[in-house]
Amino acid sequence: MKFLHTSDWQMGMKAESVGLMAERVRDERLQAARRVVQVAKEQGVEFILLTGDVFEDNAVDRLLVRKVGEIIRTFQGPVYIIPGNHDLLSPGSVWEHSVWQEATNITVFRKSESFELEQCILFPCPLQEKYSTKNPVAWISAKGVTKTAIGLAHGNVEGIPSGEPDYPIPRDAAARYGLDYLALGHWHSFARYDDAEGQCRMAYSGTHETTKFGERDSGNAVIVEIVQRGSPPKLTPVKTGRLDWRTIERTIDQPNSLEALLEELASITQPDGVLVRAFLQGVLFPEDRKALVRLEELLASRFLFGVLESSCLIPAPDGEGWIESLASGSFREAAIKLRSQAAHAVNSDERAVATQALLQLFELHERSRA
Amino acid sequence: MILHSLRVAHWRSLLNPVELGPFSERLNVIHAPNGTGKSSMFEAMRRALFDAHHVSGDEIESVRPWGRSLAPQVNVEFTEAGVRYRIEKTFLDGASARLLRFEQGSFQPLADSRNADTKLREIIAASDAPGRGLSKPEHWGLAEVLWAPQGSLKLESLSSSVTENLRAALGVQLSGEAGNRLEELLEDRYQTYFTKGGKPRTGKQAAPILALESERERVLDERRQRLEHQQRFEETGRAVEDARQKRSQARLEATALRETVIQSRQQAEAFVRLQGELIQRREAEQISRERFEAIGQSLELIASAREDIEKSDARIKNGKLLVSDLASELKEGVNAASEARQKRDDTRRQRSTLDDRAAEVEDARAYVDDSKTHQTLAARIGKLRQLESDLNVSKANRVALVAPDDEAIRDVRKSVTAREKALAALKASLIHLTVEPKKKTTVHRQSTDESQVVAAGKSATFSGTPEVRIEIEGFGIIQASGPEGDSEAHDEALKKAEAKLSKLTQPYGTQDPDRLQLLREKADEIERKIEHLEEQISELLGDDCNDGLNQQLAELDARIQERLGRFPAWKETPPNVGDLKSTLEKHRKTVEAAIETAEDAFDKAQSTVQGLEKRHSEAEAGLKNARFNLEAAQMRLKELTKDGQSDEMRAQTRQECLMSWEAAKAKAKDCETKLTSIPGDPQKDLQKLERQLKALEEAEAGARDDEKQAEGRLQTLATEGAYSKWAACEEKLADLDARIRSERLRMEATKLLYDTVTSCKAAIVAAVAAPVERTATHMIGRIVGSRLGTVRFKENFVPLGVHPGAVNEPVDVTNLSGGEQEQLFLITRLALGQVLAKDERQLVVLDDVLNATDTGRHARVLTLLEECADQMQIVILTCHPERYRALERAQFFELRSHPA
After folding, report:
1. What is the ipTM score, two decimals?
2. Which of A10, A11, A16 to mutate against chain B (most B CBs within 10 Å)?
């Protein structure tokens, strides 16, 4: 038996960290969903399990619900869905949309009760509340069944640091409740939970497309193969995401260091799928002023999204280049003063303002000489 | 620059060439009366040094001498940077310029025409004048500070080149070589965001951040609305859940209650049935009891009727006997009462004699009173008639006497006086000729043609005017004439006075005022008498009138005569009222005693008759009543016994009714026992339960409606996609926040840069201006003392004001007196001149200054000028040379008058 496990599509999610590119990022999630279906078709899976949070919220645009429904529908084979804590089963939820009734291959589980298929029995655990301290899989009793038992759940596997217990799922849930595989949703990174023998009977597939900066092992779907009841499942992650969310952090301590970073960014292929967040700290040398401007321009123009955070840069305190180019007089005195203020600022805001003031002085100085 | 000589020709009032010099390198005073051309000399010098020779226009045209076609000419000799030059310029017609340099003992040409203008400006560091017009002070270079034209001692601003020169002279650089351009760029950048006052720009040229913040506010508002929609969506979802829960709960409760209602309904039906049975039992019991009680009552009524018949028979018999006895007694009583009435009436008749006697007593009393009143009234009327008679006599006397009043007498006296005065005046205006012949003679008056015989020894006087002419027989004519006067007027006045007097006295028969006064007094006496009589009459009459008194007297007389008609004896002997009253009272007591006795006897007899009549009547009524009762009892008995049953039969029936009553009572009690075994009121309980069930069913229906409505609302809200819209707002907001942060950083950096540059500049300027301020403070202190404190300069070396030690804030220059302002601007120029003189002596020109400075301070200013002359060449132009005579080492030049 072979099926595809995916979850946490978070359709319609808010992407405030990428500003005006948010809509593009949302569109990419739909594209990624199409790729998931494509993978399922290519892999010849018998069905797809979607374990919660297909949507970011129950109040997302109904047209989006229709689009997602239509994408899933293209799979033609059965698709089994449980509502998660973001798209929980409640009055007015996305699951009341007509697309789910129209698509005959889609089953949205609305009750925690077993669902028998020809080759296996499904134990779905749909969520009806946003938060709960209840173990969503506690009701499952599959030890006595003869067919392959597969659970669908959405929650936090115990041991994941997440503050207050929220839909806690035991680390040995699959073994404890007699399941051959427990398909999990909620966490966006792919994660396996191997038992003592090294066999994996429960796993988070992770989101099919990375949702934000710093999210590891995301952008996958998992192909699960189970030979028969009791045999260990074989899990194969397949890349479905396209966006590359990169965070670059550099400490500048030598003049002309920014040139290397510029080259690195210029060498990135397919930049229209890359989102870059660059953090610079250390010392700003007078020689690097133009490179800094170029870096800013490159980030803003070449990539799907790019942002430079340089407020931690301090003008080189002993860099006389900041001073020498200015004739003696009030401007030179001002430059000395601003450089000192940046170096001795009590907080990052003051430092950033002083550094920016110094940069502006040199920008104007160059214009005055032009 | 040091000035050596100046030659000017054809310049305003200076028609002929005027040459001044050689000047001292220290102090020079050029003096002349007003209008001589002092200021024109230095105007010409400024034009020669700073203006191109080919300038045109009204301004240069105006320097040409009035009404002449002469070309203004100026030659100036001066030394600059140790080199001596001469500039020769002609303006307007045949304009030319020639610059010469002193070389090897003589002046050699250096440049001419436009080259001369340019070269000269280079030498003296002046700038080009704009266009074709004349130069302004800002083009004069250092002369802008050091030369004070007439009326322009005040320094309001200095050109940037002069300021830079001053700074350069002070050895400090403010902005560097490209500083001005950089300053402009920084100023432009700063003004993109801020006003000159440092506030963020608003309006059309608002700082970009304001538009972003405004947009952010709008998006925030939109986000709030989206969030509210989102919350409403969630709340509505919960409302749907609540409604479903409520409906489910109501349905469960209704189902459970329906079972209870069925059981309760069965119990209620049994209860109703027993209640009906009990009512039937109670009705049967009631019927038996009523029948039992009715038979018993009938038996009692039959016995009672029989007893009443017996009693009525006995009463009728006794009543008949009593009525007969009382009729006999009544007849006897009536006879006795009739006799007593007769006796009483007889006695009452004696009372009429008492009335007659009482009337006589009353007449006697009235007769006596009327007689006394008649006597008094007759005497009063007699006295009244006497007084009226006297009054009539006095009034007749007064009418007969004609006398003037006091005013008439005063008028008469005035007329007499007027007449006497007129007479005296007339006499005085006439000529009086008196003739006293020794023998009788005839005197003929010719003017009147009258003749008069005058006896011997007698005198005759002839009066006239304006002359008296008489002819004395045998003697001749004597004519006397005298002073002329207005005798006719006096005569006329006399006649008028006499006429008025005659008119006034005509009624009284005399013109003598004393006699008229006597007449007046007599009339007054008669009037007083009349008044006295009238008072007496009025007092005697009182409130009465004459006719009323006469009528009263007549009435009294009539009454007296009427009583004398009835009692003639009173005419002789008037009645004694007291005796008559005493006799009457004795008779009255006797008669009243007899009447009282007779009335008591009658009342007693009458009372006896009334008692008998009452008893007789009562006896008859009792007899009648007894007969009526008998008939009624007989009727009742007949009615009660009409069923034809015997008393025993009735008693038997009654016993049977009693038994039926007891049986019904026992059955009713049995029903009651059964009802008591059922708790409460099952019907009421059933009603309550049914109401509860109905309420639950309604609640379920209501919950269903609520659910439907909430579902409808939820559907609508879901369609809105509130989360997606809210998320879009959040993203827009995040983008705006980032842009605002960036813009704010840029703004704050610009402000910091601007403020830092400004503060650095201020610090440098402060350092630069310090020596100038110190020099100026020292100078002003020497002139006015320490009162003004230190002098403060602006960045461009223009005086800002002074800072007295006693106050915290500097005092603006405009708040100083006119004299102190003048002194402050003078020492400013001198102080700046000293700064500039460090490298080379400079020329200071003061044209007609210190006009508002008092004598004391003026002397101190002269001392200061003498000291400054060690470093500078000073040229003073004045029309008051005496004010500068104290300058011991000064060279004085008098400008002679050469009128155009």
Report:
1. 0.91
2. A16
